[in-house]
Amino acid sequence: MERGVRNHVPGLTAILTAVSLALVFGAVLGAIPETVLPGASDGVLDAIPHVNAAVSTVAIGTILLGVRSIRRGNVRRHRTLMLTSAGLFAIFLVLYLYRIILQGAAEFPGPESVYQFVYLPTLAVHILLAIVCIPLLYYVLLLAVTRPVSEIYDTRHRSLGRIAAALWLVSFFLGNVVYTLLYVVY
Predict the structure, then answer these.
(1) Is 147 in contact with 13 (CB distance < 8 Å)?
(2) Short-list 85, 93, 37, CA closest to 57
(3) Of 14, 116, 148, 179, which has the fewest CB atoms closer than 10 Å, so is most exposed?
(4) Global pTM?
């Protein structure tokens, strides 16, 4: 199984990306009926944005520590931290999609000028980076989990991983800015 995946990382990346984006856009555009999911109380649904903000903040820390670890040559710690970051991202995404499917997107409660000139541009960049990150993350993760460390240096893991980590950090950070505007400031 691992050898099959190892030999088809680009193709598997494309498939996983397509499925992931279909789920995200399906949820955001209301194409996934809420009846396919178990219900939750308003308290649980209201807690999800706050939990996701905490998850995002922890993920920012694990990504930064993962980058620092690999710069110091600690491959094992880097791997653990980056896999933890991917797990945190998965938790974030599942919770986000669950809430979106059941309640829809949150409306911005602040002034129109902040909405147009701060919130929307921040949200747009956050979403764009999240979309761009998905295939990069799948690709570098698949390279990492299908090869021994000695072979990873012969792949694009390092060069694409740097880009993925940087974009991932900015996306998580901007997601927290969006959260702050929606749930703290306004």
Answers:
(1) no
(2) 85
(3) 148
(4) 0.92
